[in-house]
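Continuing the series of single-chain predictions for the mutant panel. This is the parent chain; the variants come on the following pages.
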Amino acid sequence: MKKTLAEIAKIVDGEVVGDKDLVITGLSGIQEAKEGDLTFLANSKYIPFCKKTKASAIITSRDIEIPGKPVVRTDNPSLAFTELISAVTEGSPHLAKGIHQAAVIAEDAIIGSNVAIGPCAIIESKATIGDNTIILGGSYVGHNTTIGAGCLIYPNVTIREHVTMGNHVIVHSGTVIGSDGFGYIQIDGIHKKIPQVGTVAIEDDVEIGANVAIDRARFDKTVIGRGSKIDNLVQIAHNVIMGENCIIISQVGISGSVNIGKGAILAGQAGVVGHVTIGEGSVVYAQSSVAKSVPAQTQVSGSPARFHSKAKRVYAYTQRLPQYVKAIEELEEKVKEIEKRLKDISSSGK
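Parent structure:
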């Protein structure tokens, strides 16, 4: 990369304050940056880092001033930096091009134009792969499964039978989509498997991290809504319905038949019991255990999860438990003394 601040400002629709002819040769985080790099400041609380950074220039919001540093002012520094990276970064050279001779593709599979399929990938009977989709080595696409256009399937992904996937979906390595839901009936002490005959529907612009398991529905379908982003190591059980633009962070476990509203966020290691609703725009904080439905636009935390404002008070009280115990013990001693005196008074009165 080699661009002047003026050229960069044009790309991100920004305004240069300082040397417009300064040449930038790299992009980096504010702490890791070196001379010649451009970095960004997304939050004013990190302004102190600007005094220490070795970056030659900084992308900021339009109301921020950084004395002594050239800046590119924008409406959204984080978005501008992301757009700049996309503009100056060439396509990933490691991605497959064309169909590898070691790929195994059923004769009746439908393969779109400009599709790339890596070595040892398997495309089963009646599967459909959309235009410009890339499926890297070792991945498996089951029969009657449909994958849309412009998708990127990283190595060793399993997409089982009858799954539907929209356009521009990214799936990272180790993920399994369409595994059987976890359902059994106990008969005479033996766990008898319940057939899982539903499917999974992944809508457009979803990204699914590494080692995620999304189970097929018992009936009908498990749904991951448009634009939702799922981190690594997440379990999504059968018949979960996830709305658009949800964020699911690592190690979350979602039980069967949960309904998650549009824009909801589930932070790391949160757990949700089956058949509840997580309302639109709600936030479940890390390590929370959700045992009942969460209203829309609500923040909950704790185990069991409760309104976050209440959970913070409960947590604050628990931190003072040693003082409470000490105070109770002191009160018990005082009560014993009072009871002894009253007993002595009563005895002397006789």
